[in-house]
Input
Amino acid sequence: MGTRWQALTQDPVPQEALQAAVEEIDAQMSLWRADSDLCRLNAAAPGVWVDLPAHLMTVLEAGLGIGRASGGAFDIGLGDAVAAWGFGPGAASEAAIRAARHARSPAHELLELDPARGRAMKHAPLSVDLNGIAKGYGVDRLTEVAKAHGVTSGLFAIDGELRAIGPRAFPVAVEAPLVGHRAAHSLLGLTDAAVATSGTYRHFVTVQGRRLSHLIDPATGAPLLNPPDQVTVLAKDCMSADAWAKVFMVLPQDRALTLAALNGVSVLSLGARPYATGVFAA
Output
């Protein structure tokens, strides 16, 4: 996944079991591995059913569901735009950028899933990118494997996505959205819950002196213009926190707060118009 995983626990758990869990997710969902199951789905022609492993099917179902719930603000079908702007395995391409900026239907209208048979079919050309949700699911898998080995309390992370299990409150810093600097904005106590942060200050390109985020606007196929500097989301599981953090980067404040309440998540947005819902410990 281009980053590292971490686990903090007092209970013994084989490191190789945790490593195998994240490697399995990477093998199924990476766009940097030509032999991944996701790349195999992307390479398939429309109208052809593709057999897929269970973990990938779980993430596809969740991605399409949050896409529908958010009115398309979260769209796993932006792989062509992500790659065009140089945020994928290859370099940016002006021709690809022009091609990606077209009227598009969201992935939840183009990708059909058959969970009972473990397969998916595209109804039109579609490039699926799960970078906005797969790391969160990877964290959830770390917790599942740890629990299976008898772990009752721990903190698990992949990059900026974290999940705590058990009754202990783990201190987790919410990073200040500063380019080139690492500093804490605030601190929260994470107890049997997950947190994920999405921001514009780490992964970006500079075009004509303007910083453009790696977060693609589903409406335009181009980087978001004037998004919050950062959004942090608390949820019961890390896959949901990861995906909803992307949603709230896209949506205006009023819609974000409404969806947060409807979906039982807490959100902290930092930027020109900071806002929060839920409980965050300063």
